[in-house]
Design goal:
Blueprint lengths: L1 E8 L2 E9 L17 H8 L7 E4 L5
Length: 61
């Protein structure tokens, strides 16, 4: 499980209180409408965008 508490760009809040759980086995898809924040989530998880607050819980992250 990974929890992204907050991601901001120039005082604009992009993500807030997001928790993601990944199964130990299987395939995970991130789907949604354009502009919903899919790329922002992936970039924050990959540490391309540095979240202002970030906690990781569990194995594999």
């Amino acid at each position: 499980m990974s929890k992204i508490v907050k991601v901001e760009f120039a005082k604009l809040k992009r993500l807030k209180d997001l928790t993601i759980e990944f199964p130990e086995k299987g395939v995970v898809a991130l789907m949604g409408e354009n502009g919903i924040g899919k790329s922002t989530v992936l970039h924050a998880l990959a540490c391309i965008y540095r979240p202002h607050q970030h906690t990781q819980v569990g194995k594999g992250m």
